Prior knowledge:
heterodimer, A: mainly beta
Amino acid sequence: MGQSAMIDVRPMPAVTELSEPYWSGTRRGELMLQHCVDCENPQFPPEVSCTHCGSASLNWQRASGRARLYSWTIAHPPLLPYFAARAPWPVVAVELEEGVRMVSQLVGLEVEDYEFDMPLVADFEKVDEEVTLVVFRPAESK
Amino acid sequence: MSGRSTVGGKSAIVGIGTTEFARQIGRPEEVTALEAIRSALEDAGLNPKDVDGVFQVEGQTGEPWDVAHRLGVENLRAFSTTGGGGGAAAGPVVWAATAVAGGLCEVAVAYRARNRGSMQRPWAQSPARPTDRRAFDLPYGLVAPAQQIALTARRYLYESGAPEDCFARVAVAQRDHATRNPRAVFRDPITVEDVLESRMISDPLHLLECCPETDGACAVVVTSVERARDLAQAPAVIAGVAQGTGHRHTLMTNLQAPDPLVWPGASAAQDLYAMAGLTPGDVDVALLYDMFTPVTLYNLESYGFCGRGEAGHFVAEGGIDGVDAKLPVNTHGGNMSEGFLHGFNHVLEGVRQIRGSSTGQVANVDVALVGAAPVVPTSSFLLTR
């Protein structure tokens, strides 16, 4: 069967019409979340409608950036080449104060010191002119 | 009860068929699919031309009408392809039973052919610039299913307080069944130490806690309970069927659900038991999707065999060890040891348990449950004698 070569770069988001407010927010150093105009619930990742009530009326609001560590894993090869070259590679899931959860990375902390539910704050890691990723660091170290 | 449904108890699985399972089978999916289907029809005492319904799982070569064409079917009255990846393992049986009960067709085949041992893994084709939800996961290195499941698995250990080796116990229990199953690709006994010493894939998951990719095909024949009585085999009556997603489910991680550790399987389970008029306590043997060891635990909780956070303790106390366990599970070896037919091999094992013909036969089986991957949009059914 076909074996196509794996990408050798770190995957990065293609900024779409739907996700543009999120990525322009990270470039400004702001974590933006979609909220439903009708039921007021926040959601992540961006969707074309509210996943709580189905409403098509959504707006974007700045999140506090406060979060807690929900869980993590440490990925070992086989991995995409970019991550394999830097393995073992930790990935975390955080729960934002607003209630949504997101996949991210922790900075400023060794993986041995990760603790469930530890308080975190959002930080921003500029990749290039278009993409700035949201990462998290321990709340007290900011 | 079956009060809210006209499907439960109206149809039965009357034939099962399979190819061998192998790391590389050397024949295309179109060919292995027909081998399994012909074998299932022969088992039932039916002919290819009797078929008027074809139901398949997504992600294989060939459409249902291609199969019907190759079988010489005069008119394919009912067909569908169920989505949801591993969550679709029970889906073709769900829809075959529904179509037969509803009179859309009379003799349905449901099948899965899967040459994945011969293929590159889907995650290896990850795009450099994802445009969809993966745009929020791939940059951080959350790429493969093992990593996605490992995220909730670590949280599961924390919230439940279950012993760290509870996942490994699943792999060992299933391998023990496989040692007696000549179809199984992996038949050498393993210990908890073997599992924990196998190399780390995505902490806390080790190599022997991840199912291997294999090739093969499986098929079953579904018809009405009336017609089933005249056929070659004792029928395995389809007492209830279900699909489900739960609220705000996202594939594999479930991170946007109110509680990520309550999976789509739990939603399917409620409808399944209600349709069949059965409870978890009635189930004598469970065939539960297991592409990674924690997923077996998630299924034990989804289908009500254990409360939330209790499955790890249950397994660590030997709850699924052997054919006389409190709840015998995956008596063929599961995806992890028999072969990764995307859970469709669990369908066939459910029928063997009802017939009394399994190599891991449980005594006096009246009710068997088949549950697909509970961590994606899912499906399940209950079989009775």
